Amino acid sequence: PPEQNNPDSICYIDRETRITIDPVDPEPHPVNDVSCYYWYYVYGDEEELDECQQDEESEDCNPERFPSNGVYRTFPIEFPEESIHELHIKCKDALGNEAEEDVEYFRVDHSPPNTEKTYVGPLYTPYVCEEEYQECFFQEYIDNVTRINLTATDPEPHPSGVNMTFYRVTLAPDYYCEYPERYCQPCEGTQEECDDFVEYKGEFGIDEESCHIIEFYSVDNVGKREELNYQCVFVDHRPPETEKRIGEPQFSCYDWCWAECYNSGNDNPGQNCVEQCLENNCEYVGEYEEYEYES
To answer: How far apart are the first and last CA of the chain?
Structure first.
């Protein structure tokens, strides 16, 4: 619990958190039958709390009191407002002996974290339009050297901070990545074999070439879990294969060498002259007819 009467003692709780008290009438001669009651103030932000701590009469000090009049006598205590709460508790025994007023401060965080995924390295995102279904969408391609980075933040107004982030990568059919708007989905509930989530410790990559589902979420320090994020991505590490075709008309390097040898004054150029010409001027890519000029 937070320190008494110390607004700088930060205790974050969720809106679903319940606060209970256990008053004890001390020795040497307790009469017991202790009863307690409470009330609290809600501050809009840290600036208003600081202003009220400095000057309760300030125009900027307008915390809302709950209840507006009187006190609460039912327990446990719960705070439905996502804000800063100044809780006041008083207890007394059957003889009317009152304990010192207990004042504690709570920050209620009811907003889950937000996690963003970014790629570090090769990334290609073509915009594809499918005439058959009359829809357009982005596909994602990465290399197996591409690193995947997850960044989580706990949003305002009263963030308790991100505790942990989890992720998993699952192999999926190609159509998940070819038509992501229509087919990409979380692994759970599909026929795919799902891996376990692991805690995110830093950038990671995907070694296997194919279509994969990337799933991730974060949890804050009061246990609020983010809704599952997922995306489908192709991993491609193979270079393109090139095939060259030479159209007509064409004049082969082999024929050119025969002409060169003939034009050199040799009426009957021999095979040695042609082969020497090919070696000096052409690059071999197959049979004689498939020689290419070097320059």
So the answer is: 82
Burial of 34 (0-12, 13-18, 19+ CB in 10 A): middle
Residue 247 — φ and ψ, nearest 5°?
A: -85, 175
Coil, helix or strand for 268?
A: coil
Please spell the DSSP secondary structure of 61-88, one letter per residue. Answer: --PEEESSSS-B--SSB---SSSEEEEE
Residue 44, classed as helix, strand or coil, is coil
Instruction: State the DSSP H helix or E strand holding residue 171, giving kind and residue range, or none if neither.
Output: strand 162-172
pLDDT at 18: 92
Provide the token pair at 201.
């410790």
Angle at 35 between CA 33 and CA 39, to 5 degrees: 175
Q: What is the pTM of this model?
A: 0.71
pLDDT single digits (tens) 196-251:
999 999 999 999 999 999 999 999 999 999 999 999 999 987 767 777 666 666 66
Q: Which residues contact 203 (CB under 8 A, 6 or more apart)?
A: 120, 147, 148, 149
- Of all residues in the chain, the percent with pLDDT exceeding 90 is 51
Host H or E run for residue 180: helix 180-183
In tens, the pLDDT along 145-191 reads 999 999 999 998 888 999 999 999 999 999 999 999 889 999 987 76
